[in-house]
Amino acid sequence: MSRLLVFQHVAAEPLGTLDRLIRRRGHRIRFANFERQPDFEPNVDRYRGLVVLGGPMNVEDQAQRPHLKTELRAIERMLEQGKPVLGICLGAQLLAHVLGAPVRRHEAPEIGWYSLRTTPAGREDAVLSPLGDVSPVFQWHRYRFEVPREATHLASTAGCEQQAFRYGENAYGFQFHLEMDEALIERWLRNPAYREELAELGGLDPARADAEAIRLATREHIAGMQTRADAVFNRFLDLVGRPQRRITLPSREWV
């Protein structure tokens, strides 16, 4: 039975629908909840894969949140060992940062439903291809990553070109949230901190900062996204337990 390590930053951002898929595979999950255990030091050698979830903090917050440095070192170690890594939102930004790519505040937050367009490489990708050419996905981010130099660009939206990448054969960064279900989206819409971000978007794009509009779009799109997300996540989980090929990473410019 393989063991997977999951980095969780806040209770509001869990594994979502990915949780049941991992457990259905028979994998054991070890959660590192840095909100509860900020000093946790994981021994990544004991695990066959890593999932890094989202959170309200950012890569630049390392001085105030030293656990981010711990996470960066752990991601680096997993990559060096050739083990599967999946970064979601903040997790994707941390993965990009380890690979030497800048992470910057985006011109305008993306909150709610957006059309994701895959690149030619994304449409052929072993993991991401179930999304097809264009697919509605749920977003909630204010920062974005640049695609790392040696990575493959997989997807974009009209307002944010850098939405997904693959590094090597089994490390993926997704800026969007495929793990959402309707209950989790509602939880975010009712969370005071998240509502502040939604209000911030209102000053830039009032039409998108409407919680009721997001709820309506969720009812329209959530079932289709979950079907495609299950296929994407299952293909990522297919990578767990495969023979590992160690790789040499770029110089540690992020340190």
Automatic annotation (TrEMBL):
Domain Glutamine amidotransferase residues, every copy: 20-180
Molecular functions per Gene Ontology: hydrolase activity
Protein's name in the database: Gamma-glutamyl-gamma-aminobutyrate hydrolase family protein
PROSITE patterns: GATASE_TYPE_1
Keywords, sorted A to Z: Hydrolase
UniProt cross-references to CDD domains, sorted A to Z: GATase1_1
